[in-house]
Design a protein that fits this description.
By secondary structure, the protein is α/β, with parallel strands linked by helices. The protein has a single domain, classed as Spore Coat Polysaccharide Biosynthesis Protein SpsA, Chain A. The protein contains 8 helices and 9 strands. The longest helix is centred in the C-terminal third of the chain and has 27 residues.
Length: 257
């Protein structure tokens, strides 16, 4: 029955010649057969497109040039080009943890029939000397959204059925568009928790190091979806700012290690 389940892996690229091959390798080596690798390229001016075109992919691969601006727009192009039963965003530089992980995801979907799910993530510094295994929560609670985005999109799998209900990413957001999208998704259906790692996540991307801009947008979105009392809002703002400071301190470590 798994043969009926097609999985789209959507990868955003822009001037990613230094890391795109490891993402292509990761998807190509999957032992699950029915995968379509969709590449959305943001008009790269380096060798990214050439490397993709020359790559001998074991799965179906299609590449599209972005016709808009911003990460949310690229996400949306990926959604609109996707036709698989399930889809996952795996950006350039990110990799799946092993060759059997898509098979495990499909097996879970076949048994549980969830609308969306997310698993564990392993974050990596640039030279991969530092690794952090982000374990799964014991249970899901909407309050997890208050202090951070509790869901890494590199380890999140959406069904087409959910996408049809949620709609597209908000292109007015330059950052935290996945935080906004995940909240909207959670208001439709509770995510299913997968207790195994899905991906290795490169934490040195440009969007990952704009910690205080992330903090500002996160604060605005949190107040939109989760209005709190003035005291609780102050406490949450303070906690989020402290976490932003800690992430800022970690930036040089992530880049040089």
């Amino acid at each position: 029955m798994n043969n009926l389940i097609k999985v789209d892996v959507i990868t955003l690229t822009k001037n990613s010649s230094n890391c795109i091959l490891r993402t292509l390798d990761s998807v190509s080596m999957q032992d699950y057969k029915y995968i379509n690798h969709i590449i959305i390229d943001g008009h790269s001016i380096d060798e990214t497109v050439t490397l993709i075109n020359q790559y001998k992919h074991e799965k179906k691969i299609t590449m599209f040039q972005q016709n808009g601006i911003g990460i949310a727009n690229a996400f949306n192009i990926g959604l609109m080009k996707s036709s698989g039963t399930l889809l996952i965003f795996l950006n350039s530089g990110d990799t799946l943890v092993n060759k059997a992980v898509i098979t495990k995801i499909v097996d879970s979907y076949m048994k549980q029939k969830w609308l969306w799910a997310f698993g564990e993530t392993i974050s990596l510094s640039r030279k991969q000397y530092l690794k952090r295994h982000i374990k799964q929560y014991s249970h899901w609670n909407q309050s997890l959204f208050l202090s951070r985005n509790p869901i890494c999109h590199q380890s999140t799998i959406f069904s087409q059925m959910l996408i049809q209900k949620v709609g597209l990413y908000d292109e007015r957001l330059a950052l935290e568009m996945d935080y906004d999208f995940n909240i909207r998704a959670s208001l439709i259906a509770q995510p299913h928790l997968l207790y195994f790692p899905i991906s290795y996540y490169d934490t040195t991307g440009i969007s990952s190091i704009k910690v205080f801009k992330h903090y500002k947008v996160h604060r605005q979105l949190r107040k939109k979806y989760f209005p709190l009392s003035p005291i609780n809002s102050f406490k949450t703002d303070s906690l989020c700012f402290l976490k932003a400071c800690m992430r800022f301190i970690m930036i040089p470590i992530k880049i040089f290690l």
